[in-house]
Every structure is written in C-alpha cells, then in structure tokens.
Design brief:
The structure is a homopentamer.
Chain A (H helix, E strand, L loop, with lengths): L1 E6 L5 E6 L5 H9 L13 E3 L14 E5 L5 E5 L2 E8 L2 E2 L4 E2 L2 E7 L9 E3 L5 E9 L36 H18 L3
Parallel strand pairs in A: 3-11
Antiparallel strand pairs in A: 1-2, 4-5, 5-6, 6-9, 7-8, 9-11, 10-11
Chain lengths: 189, 189, 189, 189, 189
C-alpha cells in the first residue's frame, strides 16, 4: 500500500491511499484534475524531456492548460498563470544546449527565494516546467492522446535527468523574460 | 481512504480518516466549525469566485462570521479578526479588474513574511480571502442556505482560478486598508 | 479514527491513534501528563477564557504546575518555567481591555523569532498562555476539579476567540515583565 | 496503536508502528542501536537528571559511546563526536547551580542557529545532552545495567524538568569549551 | 509494519508500507532505481566507509551512475550531476586524515545554505557523498556485485560513523574543486 500527500485546491493537507505503485500516476492525474498538488515546486521548475511537451498531461502537476479570449495558451498552477516560451538551442564555445520549451511567470514578493530566478536587471521569474533534451516518456502523456511528435526511444524505467541549464544561458533568456513580464502587468484578468 | 491533517483549536496536530473523496468537504465543515484548520494561509489569501461571497461557508476554512455589538460583521480565523472590504472594479489603460470582496486585517510582528502585503507607507496587512471573478461553486456555500446571488454557471470540476491582482492595484487598495488599520487599534475587544 | 502527533518528553515524534473525536482531549490529557506536546507554541501564546484560569488543566498543553520551595507557583512546559502575572484592565481613550492572567518567561537566544515579544528596552519575553475575556469552557478544566470561579455561560461548541492584545498594551506590560526578567536570572534552580 | 517517526542511519524518513505506549522506549532502543533518531536535537541539548549519567542508555537518542585508541570516551550521534565535560557547581550571589555533566562539541558552519551556543570570543559549541539536578529515572538506564550511583528517589511519571542554565553560567563554561575546541581540530580521526 | 516517506521522481510526497525492518533497504533500492529519495541531503553529504565506494549501490540514495560520451563517470541525484574526486590522505602536525573519495558539484543559487561548502575564494560546492575510513558494510553494495576491494572486517550492526573532515582540510580540497567548477560550466549537456 502507498499513500500520497496532497494540498487540495482549498489548501487542505490530505493523504490518499493508493493500492500499488503502478496506480500512482493514475491517482495523481485523478486528483490533479481537481487542482490538487503533491510536493513543492522544485528550484528551476520541473524538468521533462523535450519530446513530452506537445501532449504533456498537466494534471500530473495539478495544473491545466487554459486558452485566453485572445487565444493565448497559459498553464494555471496553484493560482498562478505561466506562459509558454521557446528557447533556441545554444551552441557557443562555452556551452552547448539543445532547444527547450519553458513555462514561466514573473516572480511575486511572496515567492520563496529558492524558486526565483534572476533575469535582466531587477526582473525575477519563476519556472513551472522546462522541457529539454532527454527521451520521451509515454507515461507523462495525456491518456488516449496521440503524441504530436513521435518518441525517439522507448521510455526507460527512470527519467533521463534533464540537463541543468548552465548559468551563462540566463543572459540569452533574459530579454525574452523581461518582455513577458511587462505584458503580464497589462493582462486584463 | 483519505486522511486530512488539521491543527485543532488547541493547536494540536490531528489527522482524521475520511471514507471517500466526496466526503472530504463534509469533514472539513464538521471540524472547521470547531475552529480546526488544514494547511497554511496562502500568500495573498484564499481565492474564491465573487459570486460565492454572500453565502460562503467559512467553516471550510476553520473560520466563522461574528457580529460585534456595534453590528459590524467580522470573520474570526485562528484568533484573528478580519474585516470585510469591497474593492471597486479597476478599468485603466494598464489593467482591468472586476469588483472584489476582501477579508483582511493589519499585520502583526509575528506574521510570517510571505503573508504580509504592503499598503501605503509602513502599513502592512494580511488577507484571509478574496472573492473576485470566476464562476460560483455551490460546494462552497453554506449547506441548506439560499445563495443571495444566483450562480452564473454550473460549478466546474476544478475551481476557476481566481485572477491574480497585478501589483498596480495595491495603490488603489492602500488608503482603504490604512484607514482600517487605525480603526483596528481602537477596537475595544 | 483520528491520529494525534506528539513530541514526547524525550523529543521523539510519535503519533497516537484515537478512536473518535470525543476521546481526543482525554488522550491529550493522558500523554500531556507525561510532558508530551502536540503542535507548536503559537505567537503570543495559547489563548483561553479568563474564567478558565483557576482550574485550568495544564496537561492539555503538556505542561504542569509546580510549586517552588519558596512557595511560588510556576508552570513547566518543554523544559521552561513560566511565571504567573496578573494584568490589570486597560480603559483608555485608545483601547479597552479586560483583566487578564498571563504565563510568560524571559526569551532565550534559541527561541524562534515569532514567539518573542518586545518589552521595555532590550528585554524580550515568551508567553505560554494568556487568559482574558471570553466564556469559560468546562472541557479545559481539571477533571473532577471544582472551578473556583463559576462559569458565566455554558461552553459553546467553538472556543470564543480570545481577543488580540492591541499593540499599545505592550507599554503597560513592559515594566512588569522587565522586573520579572531580573528575578529570573537570580532564581536558584 | 502508536507510530514513531525516525530518520534512519541512511537519512531516510521511516515510521515504525508500536503496539502500545509501554513498548515505546523499547522500540526507540532497538532502532536507536542502528543509529536511527526521532525528532530534532533541542536547543541546549537533551536534559536528563544528574544521576542518570553513569549508566545512561545512549541508544535512546540514536547515539552510542565509543572509546578512542587513546582511551577517551566519546559519544557519537548522527555523524558527530561529543566530548564529556564535568561542570562544577555554581554558588554565587547571582545564582546557584548543582554540578552537571555535559556532552558537547565545537559548532560547524552547517549547524542550525538554534543549537549553537556562544562561548568565549568567536567560539561556538553544540550540546547533545546535559545531566544536572532532577531525580534519576530508571527507564533511561541501560537495560540490565547496574547503576553506578544509587537512585535517590523513585522515578516519577513525568521527567523532573532539568533546570535551565542561567546565562551567567556560560562564562564559567567557556574556557573549558574553548580548550576542547582546539583539541578537536587536532584529533586524528 | 514500517512506512518510508519518499519524494518521487515527479516531486510527489509518497509513503510506502514496508512489512518489516529487514525489507527496508530492499524497498529503498526498488524505488531508488526510479529516482525516488527519502529524507534530505545531509550537510557535508552522506558519509560511507571508504571500502564501500567501488561497488556502492547508488539506488539506495535515489541516485545512479552515468557515463558521459567522453567516458567520464558522473552520479545523478535529483537532477544534479556530481563528479568523482579522490582526496589524498592528510598527515600533518595539525591532523591526520585517511584517503577519501568524494562526489560533489558546484553550488547553485537555489541550494540551501546548510549544504553549501566553501572552497577557494567565492567558489562553493555541494557534496553528495564522501567515502572515507570506517569499515565496509556489505549491505550498501550493489546486489550480486563482487566488491572490488575485500572487506577488512565484518559489517557491524551500526554504521561506523565516518569521521568529520576537520576544517583545515578545506584548503587542500579547494584548488581541485575550483578547477572542477570551471569544467562544469563548459560541459555540453
């Protein structure tokens, strides 16, 4: 028997019994669709393989996709809206980084220090998830959904650790993030 | 089987077994009426749809409405009294915000940093809950109570995330909050 | 079934199963007599109605009364000794406060910030419990003990929230607290 | 049924079911012998009666005695070595303190603030346990071991709270502690 | 019955029931192979006997060995890559230290204070594990694996506490660590 701890959409601390380990993701999906989350947002955000992005099941994180009246796709997670950003590959003398997709938002005063990331100047942001490198894992996909990108390999037992973004990459990201920050202030929620 | 963790009115840490997920809110109401709470007050307070305010069941948060001898309605939560404030809609070039109702109090030295919000000057306050936008959810209403405002739509499975108040709104709120702060000092408890 | 989390007198983290909610206080008393505590000391101390002070059952908090060879009554809680202080009612233009009884001690370097309260000058103190206002609740009384003050009303289901001490009251308390602080240094434990 | 939470010798978080309250110390001994600990080191260290020192069962704390090749007795606890120090009684105009035995070590940068104690100058130390005053409790003794000092009284139900060391005592301790600090740096582990 | 708390590879908080204490390491291996971890990285890293390094089962920590295309062996743990470093024995007038193997990485802004270790200048690093001294324990070895170094003694019931690295050793380590830091920035993940 397993037991998974959630924070419900009402902020309550609730543990749910799970019959066996292979039922765990199913339970996370079921309660994640209600906005329940388990565990904390990690520093730098959740890391997933690049090829999981098109049909990623956001319910696994207690999040969900949302399309604004203007047609923009946002991801909502615990009361925050995250924007989708495409990061181009980096290929300099100092480092090589494959392309990535990142979901992030401007930081708020109430965000804990360890999730804030520095961009240009005073601007700080928070990353919900980054999809880069690694090998697609079907278990992260929407159930019944056809992946828009074919998996390159079979899913291994353990997640291929997505690479850490070396510090110099921050410079490349900053203008983009700063620009987004301004847009966010003007959003007519 | 589920298990919900409470802090009792005596400050003890107690977990209660719950038969099934659909019984959860019922258990939260039952123990919330005794002043038991589950989870922490989130930064910026709990967020609910605007149309849930008139008949909101404060027991869900371990809180309760209280009318002072002077006839003012306060909400008590974990030993603190919160005042009701109506925030007018904002419609400027920088942002649009629908009307809201907010329950807040002046901050105390012992409040943790992440729940303090800045107002005018040195004044800081703490929000228990804000009701703005979204779609009414009947499950948050007092049991058996007739909502004073008719729901605009059926309740969705997941709470419509209440919008984040952009930072510029703080300026509009501040005079109101500061004024309340002074009143609070003089309250003859 | 309920489960209550304790810190034992040896500092261990132990959870005890409780058959039903109405057995909870009984279990708190049983283990509290061994010095076990559940939950953290709240900022400003536990708040109880004034009329509960004479026959309060300190075992509910994992504490106990102790009479020194000099005949002074102290309350011991998690290795600290707290002194009894009577606070006179306040009735000024700025605020009205009923009389109170407070159990407090001088702060130590190792006390967390949120339980330290400022008094005169550099002196800081920590409050275990304050008894002020509210309505007596029999469930807090020593079992079998005859309350020395008759209850004014029947005990309500939820604790009447004891009022928060407005900040200006600190000035009135300070001289008393500071004086006690000096005495404490000299106590021949 | 009770449940005790441990940190194992591998740093894992493991809860062990215990049939009844009177089996609790037995379970703490059993797993403590493997280096498992429950709860946090309290500020100022664990407090025990003076007469429990000679045959104290360190397994209760997940610690154990260890004799160095040089013949010195150390106590190991969670990867740290603590030295035994005898503190003479204090009998001044300001305070009276009975003799004590203390197990402490020099502080490390990674020690949390609330366990560090100031000594002379820049030197800081951490106390694992202090044995002073109080009444011997047989339940803390090594099972089957003959106490080298006869108990002065029967063991009461609750631990006699060991007295707090008033601040002025720090001065008396400092030279001793500082001297030990230097020795520690030179220890050929 | 025992219960072990994990953080899953998706960051969820999940407890797994374990039949008996002798099955615990088996369960840690089983879920550790999926990248699940239990408990926090201790200050200074996990400490193991030197002779356990060649065939250490990293799954016990939720980590795993990984060989880069360049043939370097790294250990991945919770999204971070750690490099293997050999520390020579220290034999000075001030201290004696046996040889060690250490797995560490450069610190990131988001690392908590208590796991950061100072090296030369501004450089800080984080240690996952250090293998030094002590006596080999077969229970830490890869199941079915032949240890490349024969155990010097039988495994005792409790882990021989690996010695603490005295502060002066930091100086010897620093140049090595700093050099590695530079390499890390250039790694083409």
């Amino acid at each position: 028997m397993l037991h998974i701890e959630f924070i419900t959409d009402l902020g309550a601390r609730v543990t749910v019994d799970v019959e066996s380990a292979d039922k765990l993701l199913e339970v996370q999906r079921q309660y994640g669709r209600l906005g329940w989350t388990s565990g904390e947002l990690p520093s730098g955000g959740y890391q997933f393989p690049f090829d999981n992005e098109p049909d990623f099941d956001w319910a696994l994180l207690g999040a969900r996709k949302y399309t604004t009246p203007e047609g923009e796709e946002l991801v909502y997670h615990k009361g925050h809206a995250y924007r989708r950003r495409e990061l181009e590959p980096v290929d300099s003398r100092k480092m090589k980084l494959p392309a990535a997709v990142k979901y992030s938002r401007g930081a708020k005063n109430s965000d804990p220090e360890h999730v804030r990331e520095k961009a240009d100047g005073e601007f700080e942001y928070v990353t919900l998830a980054i999809f880069r490198g690694g090998r697609r894992q079907d278990r992260y996909a929407l159930p019944g959904g056809a992946p828009s990108g074919a998996p390159r390999t079979a899913a291994p037992a353990q997640a291929q650790p997505a690479p850490q973004r070396p510090r110099p990459a921050a410079a490349a990201v900053a203008p983009r993030a700063a620009a987004v920050g301004v847009v966010e202030e003007e959003t007519p929620f």
